[in-house]
Specification:
2 domains; about 15% strand; Rossmann fold; about 45% helix; 7-stranded parallel β-sheet; 20 helices; alpha/beta
């Protein structure tokens, strides 16, 4: 199996190398961490036992926060190694955990590289966030008697269809896993259908509800508001947007502010990926709006500039602060078929939250929010325009949506405890 996997990886490298090189040059991605990707890993505290947690990108890193906090409290003599695949995930993991734990790029899954990584990390257990399963990784862990647990597990419709097409291969890989802690009953059934033994699959709920902090105040939001001169005006926040959405949002905003009743409205756009910041800035300029880039004033205490109607949130780690200041929130990558972004955080802050019809990567949260009238799904540009207009003019309606959404988040919390209980059973230490 390892020879087949290595051959497939080698062929894949030949095919995708031009694309990777283009991104290195054009978008300045994948420029760092290659030593770690090739298994050259140095732990901060190699004398301590180790838990290896892998989270692909920003979303998975954020979802892992409550798990890591509980592991820190319960297993105080363990170091946690947190690996990510993307540059943005690595930056986020560093911001959250680097002072306490080792943050690395996930090693390439070639057998010789992954073997070296396991020798360096020496984990007592491996935790894989959502569904990031690599053949050599699970094979080496199995051979070394190291438990591998899928945490916050989910299988999207697209992934499920792909796994069914290669079910014999998928079954061989998934049977090597120790536990699958699934977000929902539906996902649990899918894991079982593609070959996971039923006795290894447990439903623990979604960690994203637990990481969505229910609060009316976010640290740093007052400073952000001061820097951007956000005062008593209403704020439409379009967060985690993707290609094709910003133009729609700007057109809607232009139509809204033509009406006198929305003269005070300001728009904040926060693109999901930092390599798109310049592209979105140029789009805003082409649409004829005066705007300010938050990066230009973030570290300035006394800004001396006019107050434009559009703000570009072109920094990392500030989206939640923007959410806390918003009057109404649109969660992006959902008006176009990109799978959506996490809307639980916006709802937990008690804001009227809306998204488009393509949030299929967050189906459970979407279904829960819509079922209890805790969010609005806008099917297209016109629908989004009407929804924004409704929330801005009917405060009772907007407040009810916000209240319902927050309650949905509250009643779905608790996955962290169930997950930690399962992990604890695998770690034979004296507590």
């Amino acid at each position: 199996m390892k020879f087949i996997a290595d051959l497939v990886y080698f062929l894949a490298v030949l095919i995708i190398s031009p694309m990777v090189l283009y991104r290195v040059i054009r978008h300045r991605r994948y420029r760092t961490g290659w030593g770690q990707r090739f298994g050259k890993i140095i732990r901060k505290n190699p004398e301590r036992k180790c838990i290896w947690l892998h989270a692909v990108s920003v979303g998975e890193v954020n979802a892992a926060r409550t798990i890591i906090e509980e592991l820190e409290n319960k297993f105080t003599n363990f170091e946690i190694v947190i690996s990510t695949t993307t540059d943005t995930g690595f930056a986020r993991a560093n911001a959250l955990f680097d002072t306490k734990h080792t943050v690395i790029y996930f090693p390439l899954d070639f057998s010789i590289i992954m073997q070296r990584a396991f020798e360096k990390i020496q984990p007592a257990v491996c935790l894989l966030m959502e569904l990031e399963i690599w053949p050599n990784f699970v094979r080496i862990a199995k051979q070394s008697n190291i438990p591998v647990v899928v945490v916050n597990g989910r299988i999207s419709d697209k992934s499920f269809s792909r796994y069914k097409k290669i079910k014999p291969i998928a079954k061989t890989i998934f049977q090597k896993l120790t536990l699958i802690l699934s977000q929902t009953e539906q996902y649990a059934k899918r894991f079982i259908e593609i070959g996971c033994p039923a006795e290894k699959v447990f439903v623990t709920g979604s960690l994203k509800y637990d990481t969505a902090q229910i609060t009316n105040k976010v640290d740093g939001s007052d400073e952000l508001a001061s820097q951007l001169k956000i005062e008593n005006e209403r704020l439409w926040l379009a967060g985690a947007t993707g290609p094709g959405e910003e133009g729609i949002i700007l057109d809607i905003f232009k139509d809204l502010i033509k009406q006198q009743r929305f003269a005070d409205l300001r728009l904040v756009i926060v693109p999901r990926k930092p390599e798109r910041f310049d592209e979105v800035a140029e789009l805003i300029r082409q649409k004829g709006f005066d705007f300010i880039r938050y990066s230009s004033v973030k570290n300035t205490n006394t800004p001396h500039w006019e107050k434009p109607s559009v703000i570009l949130g072109d920094t990392m780690g500030d989206l939640r602060k923007f959410y806390s200041l918003a009057t109404v929130i649109f969660v992006g990558r959902s008006l176009v078929p990109m799978g959506g972004s996490d809307m639980a955080e916006a709802a937990a802050l008690g804001k009227p939250t809306m998204f488009g019809p393509f949030a299929f990567n967050f189906k459970h949260t979407v279904d829960a929010l819509l079922k209890d009238n805790g969010a609005i799904m806008a099917k297209d540009k016109q629908d989004l325009f009407q929804a924004i207009q409704k929330c801005l003019t009917d405060t009772d309606f907007a407040n009810q949506i916000a209240q319902n959404g927050r309650e949905v988040i509250r009643k779905n919390q608790g996955a962290t405890k169930k997950t930690i209980d399962q992990i604890t059973k695998l770690l034979t230490i004296d507590l």
